[in-house]
């Protein structure tokens, strides 16, 4: 049961579109971590799939969390509002009569808002945390109506793409949110460029990974690689989307081969740019060399990382990238681009190389350098593990959030 | 009869259809995807019901087929009621052909012919022609997830009476899928030099204008084009870029992000999809045409730019070399090679005389090799040759 906490116990509501999700494992981790430390966490989401729950089975606090997930009543199609409406209304009035009253005073609109916010209301939160910036837009009313504090996270997409066509998209968030959380310096700068005042209460809390799970089961052997019998094993993990820059990674792979290094390149992930990736593979003559493995669970990813020599990540747009962290935890040297938070993620020259994005030549040079130097691979791999252990541990992250919530709550 | 294109069709298809109709061909366009649009004389547009909802339309097709070829009509009935979605597709097309009794049935898109294979295999009294125009032959087969579709391309090629390819390189690509060279007929696309004509651009000579046209898809290499353009700016040239072409949601997001990320927003104007006449007008005001495609049949966009007297920098994708002569009409650089693209741009940017010379050569080349008359002649030779063969 809950261990002792330093601060006081808080009632926290995490708001996200879908929970749990394999691609958003960090949310599960965070919710479980906060629960373990004795906070009362409720997750309010738009959908929650049985299939995803199965994938998480066996993790700490699984059952407890399951009980604490609330799915918001649907807003579409309209007739379903009619079906769910009375229940949602009753729940919110019974659960938090004062707040519900404040909603109803706003008339019909208030009734509509009450329907959408019913689950949050019933949890009587002290802190509402919107895990993705875009979901917070239009919902800042929660702050006054519930008398709670609102924290908004920015993780990449929400700053890089969401609402770009509207310069005032986040105005309300910048004005009303009690605290802004960004994954790193890069995103905080982007937030400011999009209008966030620099003096806003904020915290830069990098993502964390389960360094116990992502740990080598046996020491890596650093042999000579890049020959026919023992090709250099490259690995990439990430959805097949244009943002991940796979076309540039493949161009780099071709250059590595042209430099006389035999490679074997495995790509884990699936997505909408599949055809572009396969075509690039075909056109660059890499058909027998590059394997598209499809999406994998974290056990599969761990297995791949155990086997690989170098992790390649050529993204053109990135938030922070957990796969790169996991690779470092697995003692894999990383060659990545300088998109988004990657330069904060990888220590250039220590745990890997950060190269200019969209520059296959520089990337290839770094890969060739690593291929030829087993000692360098060892050094970078070990440094990577140390880096994750000191900077990106789950416990540290949870504690940082706790501390941040404490500051927000005042 | 032309099967399975959308209506109104792409500009190059419309040009072909209009020209043939003017020669007295009676053309029926069978489409499942029709919007309103001007229909030229001698052309009929037959809209197919896309699903069972369109049963009224299907009934009329069946009625027509019954009058002309009752056996085909009955077979179609069996397919429509017994074969799910594919059966429906096949059956209504069978009725359309039976009702219209064409001499020649032409599938302008390779993969559109695949579901109709049974029709092609047991055809009686008509000739089947299929076109190889680009990505369906050069890109799709590399995708193992589409093997079910593309795997049958070879069979389509061997069962059709003639296979039209837009370039010599397309023939080679199709051969890899099982095309027998003797069946292939290369007919390159044509440009209307009256619509796309050269003109004296009255621009500010200090600021170079680079143009790009065509839908922004990954296969067109938009990001590579932007990178090359960025290098051009870095070389000290004063330049701006203008892009004409629509984009899907993903591509739009990608393109706008790249613009922002590369710091090119002030230098690049993206106009979206624009009517052909307007494109022609804007091309005339440009100085250089850039085409960074990873794969092509033969690009109509490049031909149009050449007709407008623009020197071209294009990648060596598909049949581009057959249109642009490297060093004469422009520069042909290796695909995905940003350095080479940038180098060619810089060379042209620094030498107005070279631009003028190459532009003039490009226009001349289109006037000689890519005219509508030549294309129409070749189409007639192909179609009429098939009919003559049959009579003998």
Features of the shown structure:
heterodimer, A: 410 residues, alpha/beta, 7-stranded parallel sheet, 19 helices, 13 strands, 16% strand, elongated, B: 392 residues, Rossmann fold, 2 domains, 6-stranded parallel sheet, 18 helices
Shape assignment of chain B: elongated
Radius of gyration of chain A: 23 Å
Mean pLDDT of chain B: 89
Shape annotation of chain A: elongated
Strand share of the residues of chain A?
15-25%
Query: Any idea of the CATH topology of the largest domain in chain B?
Result: Rossmann fold
Low-confidence stretches of chain B: none
Largest sheet of chain A: 7 strands, parallel
The CATH homologous superfamily of the largest domain in chain B is termed Glycogen Phosphorylase B
Oligomer: heterodimer
Q: Percentage of helical residues of chain A?
A: 40-55%
Return the domain count of chain B.
Answer: 2
Q: Could you explain the architecture of this structure?
A:
- The complex is a heterodimer of chains A (410) and B (392).
- Chain A is 46% helix and 16% strand.
- In chain A, the strands form 2 sheets. Chain A has a 7-stranded parallel sheet, sandwiched between helices.
- Chain A has 410 residues and is an alpha/beta fold.
- The two termini of chain A are 27 Å apart.
- Chain A is built from 19 helices and 13 strands.
- Chain B is an alpha/beta fold and 392 residues long.
- Chain B has 2 domains: 2-191 and 372-391, Rossmann fold (3-Layer(aba) Sandwich), CATH 3.40.50.2000; 208-369, Rossmann fold (3-Layer(aba) Sandwich).
- Helices cover 48% and strands 14% of the residues of chain B.
- Chain B has helices at 11-22, 55-68, 70-82, 84-100, 110-113, 117-121, 135-138, 147-150, 153-159, 168-176, 222-234, 249-261, 276-284, 300-307, 320-323, 338-350, 352-369, 372-391, and strands at residues 2-3, 27-31, 43-47, 104-107, 127-132, 162-165, 184-186, 208-213, 239-244, 268-270, 288-291, 312-315, 330-333.
- In chain B, the strands form 2 sheets. A 7-stranded parallel sheet of chain B has the order 3-2-1-4-5-6-7, with helices on both faces. Chain B has a 6-stranded parallel sheet with strand order 10-9-8-11-12-13, with helices on both faces.
- The chains are: A alpha/beta (410), B alpha/beta (392).
């Amino acid at each position: 049961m809950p261990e002792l906490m330093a601060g006081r116990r808080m009632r926290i509501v995490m708001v996200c579109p879908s929970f749990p999700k394999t691609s958003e494992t960090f949310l599960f981790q965070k919710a479980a971590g906060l629960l373990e430390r004795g906070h009362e966490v409720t997750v309010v989401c738009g959908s929650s799939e049985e299939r995803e729950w199965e994938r998480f089975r066996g993790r700490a606090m699984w059952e407890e969390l399951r009980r604490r997930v609330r799915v918001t009543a649907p807003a579409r199609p309209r007739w379903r509002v009619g079906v769910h409406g009375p229940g949602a209304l009753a729940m919110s009035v019974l659960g938090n009569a004062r707040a519900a009253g404040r909603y109803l005073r706003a008339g019909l609109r208030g009734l509509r808002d009450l329907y959408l916010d019913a689950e949050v209301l019933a949890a009587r939160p002290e802190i509402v945390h919107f895990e993705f910036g875009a979901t917070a837009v239009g919902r800042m009313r929660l702050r006054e109506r519930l008398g709670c504090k609102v924290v908004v996270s920015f993780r990449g997409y929400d700053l890089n793409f969401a609402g770009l066509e509207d310069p005032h998209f986040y105005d309300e968030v910048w004005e009303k949110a009690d605290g802004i959380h960004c994954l790193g310096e890069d995103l905080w700068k982007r937030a400011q460029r999009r209008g966030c005042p620099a003096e806003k209460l904020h915290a830069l809390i990098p993502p964390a990974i389960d360094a116990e799970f992502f740990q080598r089961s046996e020491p890596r052997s650093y042999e000579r690689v890049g020959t026919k019998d023992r090709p250099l094993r490259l690995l990439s993990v990430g959805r097949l989307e244009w943002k991940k820059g796979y076309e540039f990674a493949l161009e780099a792979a071709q250059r590595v081969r042209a430099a006389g290094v035999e490679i074997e390149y495995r790509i884990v992930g699936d997505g909408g740019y599949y055809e572009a990736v396969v075509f690039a593979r075909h056109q660059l003559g890499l058909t027998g060399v590059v394997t598209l493995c499809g999406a994998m669970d974290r056990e599969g990813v761990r297995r791949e990382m155990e086997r690989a020599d170098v992790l390649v990540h050529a993204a053109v747009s990135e938030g922070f990238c957990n796969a790169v962290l996991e690779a470092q935890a697995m003692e894999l040297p990383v060659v990545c681009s300088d998109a988004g938070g990657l330069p904060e993620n990888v220590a250039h020259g220590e745990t890997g190389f950060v190269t200019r994005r969209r520059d296959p030549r520089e990337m290839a040079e770094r890969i060739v350098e690593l291929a030829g130097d087993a000692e360098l691979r060892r050094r970078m791999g070990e440094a990577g593990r140390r880096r994750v252990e000191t900077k990106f541990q789950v416990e540290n992250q949870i504690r940082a959030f706790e501390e941040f919530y404490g500051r927000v709550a005042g | 009869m032309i099967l399975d294109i959308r209506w109104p069709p792409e500009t190059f298809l419309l040009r072909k259809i209009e020209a043939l109709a003017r020669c007295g061909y009676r053309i029926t366009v069978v489409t499942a995807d029709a919007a309103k649009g001007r229909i030229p004389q001698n052309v009929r547009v037959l809209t197919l019901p896309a699903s069972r909802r369109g049963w009224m339309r299907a009934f009329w097709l069946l009625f027509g087929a019954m009058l002309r070829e009752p056996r085909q009509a009955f077979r179609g009935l069996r397919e429509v009621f017994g074969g799910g979605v594919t059966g429906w597709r096949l059956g209504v097309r069978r009725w359309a052909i039976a009702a219209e009794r064409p001499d020649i049935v032409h599938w302008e898109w390779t993969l559109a012919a695949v579901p109709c294979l049974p029709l092609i295999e047991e055809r009686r009294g008509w000739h089947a022609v299929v076109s190889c125009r680009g990505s369906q032959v050069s890109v799709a087969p590399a995708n193992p997830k589409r093997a079910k579709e593309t795997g049958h391309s070879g069979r389509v090629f061997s069962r059709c009476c003639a296979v039209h390819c837009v370039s010599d390189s397309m023939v080679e690509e199709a051969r890899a899928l099982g095309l027998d060279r003797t069946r292939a007929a290369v007919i390159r696309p044509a440009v209307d030099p009256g619509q796309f004509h050269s003109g004296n651009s009255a621009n500010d000579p200090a600021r170079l204008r680079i143009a790009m046209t065509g839908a922004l898809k990954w296969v067109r290499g938009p990001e590579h084009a932007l990178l090359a353009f960025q290098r051009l700016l870095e070389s000290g040239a004063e330049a701006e870029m203008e892009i004409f072409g629509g984009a899907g949601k993903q591509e739009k997001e990608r393109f706008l992000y790249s613009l922002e990320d590369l710091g090119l927003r002030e230098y690049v104007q993206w106009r979206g999809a624009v009517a052909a006449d307007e494109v022609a007008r804007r091309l005339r005001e440009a100085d250089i045409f850039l085409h960074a495609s990873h794969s092509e049949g033969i690009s109509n966009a490049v031909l149009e730019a050449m007709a407008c007297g623009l020197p071209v920098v294009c990648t060596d994708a598909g049949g581009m070399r057959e249109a642009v002569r490297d060093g004469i009409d422009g520069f042909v650089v290796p695909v995905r090679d940003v350095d080479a693209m940038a180098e060619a741009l810089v060379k042209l940017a620094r030498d107005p005389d070279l631009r003028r010379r190459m532009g003039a050569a490009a226009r001349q080349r289109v006037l000689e090799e890519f005219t509508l008359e030549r294309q129409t002649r070749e189409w007639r030779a192909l179609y009429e040759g098939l009919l003559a063969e049959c009579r003998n």
